[in-house]
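Sequence design from tokenized structure. All designs in this work follow the same two-part layout: the structure record, then the generated sequence. An example of the structure record is given first.
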């Protein structure tokens, strides 16, 4: 079994590949530090960690871009898409743990989604939704929208990812291509503050309309109120034990 951060980790594999690329390619392929160093396994401080994992240190990082050939059906699908939209529509292609992720420039997202759905060689007919991710340490690309697509025709899955700065959190809506994304985009706006331009009714879906902020961002305070459930009281998050 490969240990996290070991010699066969995706982060180290990407690091080895950097030696074979020019500086521009190396920047695109470099692992992205997604957060601060994690210490221990449960985030316990001050009381002693008796789990045996107290000495664990791990830098949270995302895999960088991958080099061709990608393997499997990934090469044919990406080449077909690039032939339809050009190679400038994609920022990078990431193949990690047997999964294909296309990082798409936001201004080309609707066009890319349209071709992925309609082209007979691709036929990703179903989008299961969009979710948000917040990486405060990734300056200029703090907010990510992640879309999971399924091709029922070819039995394939692909992931699209769009990154925007938190100072300009605008991404085009793809409800015109995948209508079922309607409520998913509303939820991502509600929890992360990503604004989906062109959405038919971008309003909060779970939090009250007058709720301040977006509660799943990592810079959102954990304070809260007691919740009563069948006679038991659950304390607010900022008074609970930290589990990293």
């Amino acid at each position: 079994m490969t240990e996290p951060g070991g010699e066969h980790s995706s982060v180290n594999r990407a690091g080895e590949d950097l030696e074979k690329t020019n500086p521009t390619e190396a920047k695109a392929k470099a692992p992205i530090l997604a957060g601060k160093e994690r210490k221990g396994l449960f985030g316990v401080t001050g009381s002693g960690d008796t789990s045996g994992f107290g000495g664990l240190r791990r830098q949270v990082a995302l895999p960088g871009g991958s080099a061709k050939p990608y393997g499997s059906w990934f090469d044919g699908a990406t080449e077909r898409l690039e032939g339809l939209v050009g190679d400038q529509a994609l920022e990078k292609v990431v193949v990690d743990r047997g999964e294909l992720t296309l990082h798409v420039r936001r201004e080309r997202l609707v066009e890319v989604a349209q071709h992925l759905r309609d082209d007979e060689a691709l036929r990703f007919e179903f989008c299961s939704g969009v979710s948000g991710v917040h990486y405060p340490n990734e300056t200029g690309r703090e907010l990510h929208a992640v879309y999971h697509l399924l091709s029922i025709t070819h039995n394939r899955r692909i992931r699209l990812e769009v990154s925007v700065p938190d100072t300009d959190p605008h991404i085009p809506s793809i409800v015109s291509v995948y209508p079922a994304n309607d409520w998913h985009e509303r939820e991502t706006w509600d929890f992360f503050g990503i604004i989906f331009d062109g959405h038919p009714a971008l309003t909060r879906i779970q939090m009250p309309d007058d709720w301040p902020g977006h509660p799943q961002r990592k810079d959102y305070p954990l304070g809260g109120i007691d919740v009563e459930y069948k006679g038991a009281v659950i304390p607010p998050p900022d008074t609970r034990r930290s589990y990293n």
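The CA atoms of residues 28 and 65 lie 6 Å apart. We note this feature because it recurs in several other targets discussed in the main text.
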